[in-house]
Amino acid sequence: MDLFTLLFILLCITGFISKYFDSTLGLGYGTILAPVLIIGGYSVYRVVPAILFSEFVSSAITALLHRLAGTISSDPESKDFKVSAILSTMGMIGAAVGVGIAVSFSELFITIYVAITVIITGSLVAQKFRWSFNYRKVTIIGFIASLNKSLSGGGYGAVVAGGQILSGRESRKAVASTATAEAVTTGTSYALYVLLERTELNLDLFLQLEIPLLIGAILSAPFAAYFVSAVKPDRLIPTVGTAAVLLGIYTIFDTLVQNPVAGVIAVVIFLVLIVVATRNGKDDKKDIVDTDKR
After folding, report:
1. Of the candidates 176, 131, 186, 132, which has an alpha carbon nearest to the alpha carbon of residue 156?
2. Which of 31, 75, 194, 280 is 20 to 30 A from 233 via CA?
3. CA distance 232 to 176
4. Across 138-154, average pLDDT
């Protein structure tokens, strides 16, 4: 097996795993994939458009499958439709602002921004970030998340869908609504990168990154749509968040230090996070027991 084929298969698997988490938990594709690819040696200017392209197609398919399965309603008066419409509108606006910023700064700045976004997003998720649902917050969070998405390739579903799920909204509906809006956000962002000549529609280029990621992401869609009801988001979301923090920290050290020390520091921080998460979990259980006794 030659190197190209091996790399192609590995990228397919990476895209599959990342999109599976994204489609079932509403987070993880760009948040996990962006730092992994940057650590793997890809330029951030290749990584972000590639993620946006593959996620545009896969999110559109995921959203369509959810609609065909009746997960969310297409009635204009329904909560599902209103949430999708608001997030999609904010997605287009945020995408325009984000891409404008991306083309105005250096590659180093964007790489560090991606890593910081991943760390902040992962921290919020690991701490079970939640927000009380109302349309004003949907609008504000939708704009901020879409701006981050167009700039970094991640940080969208973790805040938009993850926050809804942890605040009590049914996970299937939160994920489906977010997939619809994410398709609009990523599609708009990618189109703007092409128009501003920061990426190009080239088959040879696509075979190196976009196509294998897309194949993996598309293959995950039916599995995600089928298993979304069986996934326990309260347990898995914090784990994905912790992994994102680790990758973000490693990306920063690897970019600035370019030394094995980066890995050591990242592992130490990861172990600290595990200890903190374990203690928080014990505290949560203690609170539940105390509540039951009362």
Report:
1. 186
2. 75
3. 16
4. 87
Q: Name the residue among 24, 26, 1, 29 with its Cα closest to residue 216.
A: 29
pTM: 0.76
Q: Using alpha carbons only, what angle is made at residue 34 by residues 38 and 142, rounded to the nearest 5 degrees? A: 150
Q: Which residues contact 2 (CB under 8 A, 6 or more apart)?
A: none
CA 162 to chain centre: 10
Compute the chain's Rg from CA coordinates: 19
- Convert the pLDDT of each residue in 190-244 to its tens digit: 999 999 988 888 888 899 999 999 999 888 877 776 666 666 666 666 777 777 7
Q: Looking at this protein, which amino acid is placed at residue 198?
A: R
- Give which of 288, 63, 16 is closest to 174, Cα–Cα: 63
- Tokens standing for residue 9: 């298969």
Under the banding of pLDDT at 50, 70 and 90, the label for residue 278 is low
Q: Around Cβ 200, how many Cβ atoms within 10 Å?
A: 10
Quickly state the pLDDT bin for 93 (edges 50, 70, 90).
very high
So what's the pLDDT on residue 233?
61
Residue 227 backbone dihedrals phi, psi, to 5 degrees: -95, 0
**N-term to C-term CA, the chain:** 63
Number of other CB atoms surrounding residue 75 within 10 Å:
10
97 exposure class (CB count in 10 Å sphere: 0-12, 13-18, 19+): middle
Digit-coded pLDDT (tens) for 196-207: 988 888 888 899
Is the Cα dihedral 135, 140, 143, 145 positive or negative?
negative
Distance of CA 224 to the CA centre of its chain: 15
